[in-house]
Amino acid sequence: MITLHDVKVWDTGEVIDLVIPGTAADLLTDADRPFPPAAAQVADGDVHIDATGLTVAPGLADPHVHFRDPGQTAKETMVSGCAAAASGGYTNVLIMPNTVPAMDGEKVAAGQPGTDEVLTAGHDCVIDFLQHYEADHGVTLPVAYDLCVCASKGRAGKEPTELADIAWYMPGRHTGEKDAAQLAHPVTAVSDDGSAVPDAILDEVLTRIKDAGLYLIEHCEHHDTGFINEGPVSRQLGLPGIPEDTELRIVARDIEAARRTGAHVHFQHVSTAGSFEAIRKAKAEGLPITCETAPHYIALTDEAILEYGPLAKMNPPLRSAADRQAVHAAIADGTVDLIATDHAPHTMEEKNAGLEAAPNGIIGLECAYGVCHKVLVDGGIISEQRLIELMATAPMHLMGHTPTDVAGLLNTSSACATKRTLDLGAVEHPESVNLVILDTDRPWTVEPERFHSKARNTPFGGWQVTGMPLATVIASKLVFSRL
């Protein structure tokens, strides 16, 4: 049993003792931070830690991650990606469908890239492969995850995915016939992430997802040329630029499509002032529109290309200083519903191929909270509590889950006292309790070489940030600690 003494509840400010059942036998830690820590008191096998100044909150959640498994496991695997998530304080993630082969529910064929991994595990579909990953590989993954299926077959943009064929994998369908893994990791959204859904099939995709009770996670950007944002930096480097309206055109198009169909469209990684204004107006009309932005659009501008080169190359590209100000304003006024990392691992060999040849994307799970806290909270843009809403409770609601209500658990498990105790071993549904322990004031340096992810492609290496996730609790069990 592990007891954290005098930890603060994130939304009420109440100081409590938190009791976490079990031992730390399979606990993930940083290499130089063994558990229990030297400052802990151990008596009869129980660990007691002074958590004064620390905060307990619902676990962070990210509806936009790429774990590259199957097909690109040199970049990331389910094991390393989930370890990175737990290290960053995340308890729930949504895995994007641009696996190899693509996660579209279709049966895979031998001889194609990535299919050997699926077939060797005894499956003929990427969804089955990912749902049963733990049992097939003999591992316990320290994060809960749902799956996002392709909007079009093979992410090719030609034919809408046959959602009727994957109804089995959706929550609430055929529940009496599914095994525990299928119930735990359902398909909850669709996306052709990396590409916007093409005009020719957009309405059909939206009609199908509305009928299925899903939502579209839209990559709201399309361009045929260009590598970085069109502006002074692209001209200085002599590279073709990507105009800002490449994003706004998709946003405006999809808002009209949501109006026609009534389907829920969630815009990924929104980055421009014009897009935020269009989304702001659509939400004021009551249209089923939500959106996210990412830590890199919060913290960086296209000037970062001059300093970090390909490590700052992403899609949509980093934008102007004015657009970054618009990101901050949209977060402050509630236009932005949540913050997602778009965790996109690549090998450093790929990223070192030069600005034009390097793939888009950066990793983000292990430093997102610190970067966002440094810019948004330390910068006076939002409060500590609002950051938790953006990174924990709102993403959970989008994904169709209920975030852990710490205060509510206290009210049902502990009588009123000078200092109450929340014993996770005594709650009614311990399997539903996912938490993060945060030191919101701790300064630290981002060191990619210490990441649990296989990848190192981030421009934030060496950054001084504040706010560190110290422990992650999944299903009432401690799965990661740097206490």
From TrEMBL:
Its EC number is 3.5.2.3. CDD domains: DHOase_IIa (cd01317). Keywords: Hydrolase, Metal-binding, Pyrimidine biosynthesis. Gene3D superfamilies: Metal-dependent hydrolases (3.20.20.140), Urease, subunit C, domain 1 (2.30.40.10). Its cofactor is Zn(2+). Residues 55-479 form the Amidohydrolase-related domain. The keyword Hydrolase applies. One of its GO terms (biological process) is pyrimidine nucleotide biosynthetic process. GO terms for cellular component: cytoplasm. It comes from the Bacteria. Pfam families: Amidohydro_1 (PF01979). One of its GO terms (molecular function) is metal ion binding. NCBIfam families: pyrC_multi. Belongs to the metallo-dependent hydrolases superfamily. DHOase family. Class I DHOase subfamily. Catalyzes the reversible cyclization of carbamoyl aspartate to dihydroorotate. This is Dihydroorotase. It comes from Bifidobacterium pullorum subsp. gallinarum.
